[in-house]
Amino acid sequence: AKLKGRNQYVFFEALEEQNKSTNVKVEYDFDNAVKNLEFIGNYQPLIDFDSGDVIGAEILVRWQHPKLGLLYPDFFIPILEKSGQIVQLDLYMLKLAVSKLNLWADWLPKQFKLSVNVSTSGFASEDFISYLQEQHLLSAEITSRLCVEITEESLILNVDAVKKHLDILKNINIPVALDDFGTGFSSLSYLHQFSLDYLKIDKSFVDDLNEVSNKVLILDAVVNLAKSLKIKTTAEGIETAEQYQKLKEIGCDLGQGYHIAKPLLDSDFKRFFLNSVSE
Ligand code: C2E
Ligand code: CA
Ligand code: CA
Ligand code: CA
């Protein structure tokens, strides 16, 4: 039904109130969730297009909320970004990633990379970067298996902190991926000044890969320009065999998506990886 005038106002006001109380709840529950280890990681495999091998994974947060059930990041991350608590979550997930790499050290190949997402404020924070520096001193072998995924927003806001932190990561051999490429406004030539290692091409590009669309041409240009800048490309959100084939032909380096595997529980990821090796 169409809402008019005052009714519409009341409707939006009620919606606003409802959102406010959900936000308050998420913020309030967050501290307990950290204490009770309610956040878990799902692990989505990344494959190398040339060999077809699983050469990495991305850790994706899930919240096992005692009352609300399993919550996904698209719901709670925006709220934690507003409250500032995202910085704590980023560090939590980074620590979880490091602990998994320690746990999996004996069966993961040397070149394997586990990618961790970090928010704009998380990447600008001192805690995130100093934790990585500490871990590097403890075990460079473990931290060499990490990759940090940042967004264009991170590069644009906090430019000074970001440049400093990117330099530190370079010095301790932790590669950086630019997430969701193609959704922002930056050109590759602008991004080159930041010394990025991977470009993750957003799913929206992959979705439109058919014969008639000129997305193929754009993608082809992006992949080749990245290549000439020594940046590897990862295609995200591959859902079909056709997309997979096309991206491989274009010359993308890495692939990720439901067609390869969904984000998996840690035990399932281990099984998936070991099966893929024995094939
Ligand atoms: P993202 O970093 O772009 O991660 C990829 C998202 O696409 C994931 O959603 C993944 O489950 C989904 N996906 C992967 N392959 C496919 C596919 O073939 N089809 C479709 N439809 N979706 C696919 P998810 O896990 O819900 O995460 C959403 C976003 O939340 C992430 O987008 C990332 O921006 C953020 N996020 C996740 N974990 C963390 C974290 O630990 N810290 C921070 N700061 N952000 C996180
Ligand atoms: Ca990501
Ligand atoms: Ca992405
Ligand atoms: Ca995204």
TrEMBL record:
Annotated signal sequence range: none
All residue ranges annotated as the EAL domain in the record: 23-277
Lineage top rank: taxon: Bacteria
Protein name: EAL domain-containing protein
Organism: Colwellia hornerae
